[in-house]
Amino acid sequence: MDQQRAQGETRSKIPRALLLGLAALALALALSALFWLDARSRIGATQEELARRLHDIEADAREARSLAREAQAGMREAQAKGAQLEARLAESQSQQLALEALYQDLSRNKDEWQLAEIEQVLAIASQQLQLSGNVRAGLLALQLAEARLARADRPQFVPVRRALARDIERLKALPALDLPGTSLKLDRLAAAVDSLPLAFEERADRKPAAKGKAGAAEAGFWSRLGAEIWGEMRQLVIVRKVETPDAPLLAPPQAYFLRENLRLRLLNARLSLLMRDEAGYREDLRSAQAWIRRYFEPRSKQTADALAQLRQLAAASVSFEMPTISDSLEAVRGFKSRRERGS
């Protein structure tokens, strides 16, 4: 019985365990199916999310590639522009160096040209001083040279400017003598010799004219006729009173040579003035004054003016020692030679 009971219990336990196993299996299968469905839905969602993200990543990648291409193009353009800027910078630097060299060359050439012009002006002024004693021309040349160097305002020109200043003061200290003006006055006097009236001609022309006017003042035809006949008869023999012991009676050829000799005297005085021969200058002026007083009408305005001008010219001193401007010339030439050796 017990065995049967045990067999019955065993038989009753087997289906129950089987049922439990089947139930557990069914539950497991249900849970597995549920888990599978859930996992599948999750995997699908994950795949969709992954696909979406991959699509976004691909879009971002395409955009990034586009931006990278644009950045590369911009970089290449920037590099090209940088290369162009570097080339332009190098070109501008080379041009700047060339301009600086050209400026230095031009500045050097300008100084050389300026010094050459100053040297030429000073050489001409020195010749004028030595040959004709033209102090005004020498002073103007020195002042012009000093003004040009002052406008340049270079420290290296200071020694030259000092030499110019010394020569300017030396010329300013000379006695005032208008050499061109004095020479021009002598030329005008020489040209006016032909207009000076001779004493004999002036008296001969004046007395008959006075008598003619006195006869013309007489009234009546017969009186005028008698006066004219009497005047003609008086012209046959003329008696004149000469105030000086030696009468200046000159024939026409002698009057011509007198005027020419007087003109030569004045021209010799001008030559003596230019040669700084004060003795010859004064002697010629003295002879000219003596001839004018002796042979020309002293009461004439032309004669009086000529004598006044001769006295004024004779009062001027022309025998002072003429200085030179060799200091300025030597300073300019020395500066040029030192500059040429330095270059």
Please give a structural write-up.
This protein has 343 residues and is mainly α. The chain has 10 helices and no strands. Among the domains are: 107-175 and 325-342, no CATH class; 178-197 and 250-321; 199-248. The protein has helices at residues 2-132, 135-152, 158-172, 179-191, 199-216, 221-234, 252-274, 278-295, 301-314, 326-342.
Number of strands: 0
Number of helices: 10
Helical percent range? over 70%
Uncertain regions spanning at least 5 consecutive residues? 202-219
What structural class do helix, strand and pairing data support?
Answer: mainly alpha
What is the CA-CA span between the terminal residues? Answer: 148 Å
List keywords for this structure.
82% helix, mainly alpha
Question: Can you summarize this structure?
Answer:
The protein is mainly alpha-helical and 343 residues long.
Topology:
Elements: H1 2-132, H2 135-152, H3 158-172, H4 179-191, H5 199-216, H6 221-234, H7 252-274, H8 278-295, H9 301-314, H10 326-342
Helix pairs in contact: 1-2, 1-10, 2-3, 3-10, 4-7, 5-6, 7-8, 8-9
